[in-house]
UniProtKB/TrEMBL annotation:
The chain crosses the membrane at residues 6-21, 115-137, 143-165, 197-221. Pfam families: Zn_peptidase_2. Keywords: Membrane, Transmembrane, Transmembrane helix. The keyword Membrane applies. This is Zinc metallopeptidase.
Amino acid sequence: MTMLIYFLLIIAIPILIQLYLRRTYAEHLRIAARSGLTGREVARRLLDANGLYDVRVEEVRGKLTDHYDPTTKTVRLSSDNYYGSSIASVSVAAHEVGHAIQDAEGYAFLRFRHALVPLATFGSNASFFFILLGIVLYSANLILLGIITMAFAVLFQIVTLPVEFNASSRALNQMVSLNVIGMNEEHAARKVLNAAALTYVAATVVAVLELVRFIMVYAGMNNE
């Protein structure tokens, strides 16, 4: 029964958070920002205000596919946010600019996250193979190897949290200081940014729970 509840939780948490994000985003996509600026215009204004003239702003296909690419120094915004002038559009655009500013300043957690990418990718791909093989062969050493590799992926998720929250904090401050949003719009913008950040919190919680579960499997095997 305990395991059933556990599996229901790790399935339900991300789904519920995604539903909340999409509902919050859709709600604020219908609310026009007072400035009338599009997401592209907001991104460009914030980038220029921070001296990041070399960072490009491009449209990318998909919904909520917005991201900052540090390898090409490009802020990519989904069509709704690139052309839209809603509270949701300008908030998402400003958040991605927050990552560009982090990159330009050499923000420690962002640099650490970039350094973790190869290990995290390997951990995500290999950990379950080692653990499954360890369970089949009843080998505690293989399970331990799987736990160690999984820990890199979990660490990546944990380090992502301060990166995302810091980018959102920068976005809100920049939008207010550059009059992209008014004081009466700050609450709505914060709501959009917090909803997006919750998706990373959910992913981290699930990752940590999975790691703890396999640590308990390893401990139980050793006790036997």
